[in-house]
Design a protein that fits this description.
By secondary structure, the chain is an all-alpha fold. It has one domain. It is globular and about 35 Å long. The chain starts with a helix and ends in a 10-residue tail after the last helix.
Length: about 80
């Protein structure tokens, strides 16, 4: 389960990133944020099972940031873009 979970979680995060890079998804869209949240949550669980604390920190923070952004979007707030 751990290897499958790591691959599945990685594919979720990477698919959102790839779609955003191609202009298919906006970085503040529900789909992009949900893919990031789901993928990072799966990867966080895998990190706990394997006792990979640095990876857990990375993915845990990624999940929290994604969840915060998703909640904001679901509440009708607009996420700001970084200046070019």
């Amino acid at each position: 389960m751990t290897q499958f979970g790591q691959i599945f979680g990685s594919l979720l995060v990477l698919s959102g990133f790839a779609l955003a890079q191609r202009g298919v998804l906006d970085h503040s869209s529900r789909t992009y944020l949900a893919l990031n949240l789901a993928g990072s949550a799966v990867l966080s669980a895998a990190a706990v099972l394997e006792h990979l604390w640095g990876f857990l920190l990375l993915e845990g923070v990624w999940a929290v940031v994604s969840a915060t952004g998703l909640v904001a979007v679901l509440r009708g707030r607009t996420l700001t873009k970084a200046p070019n």
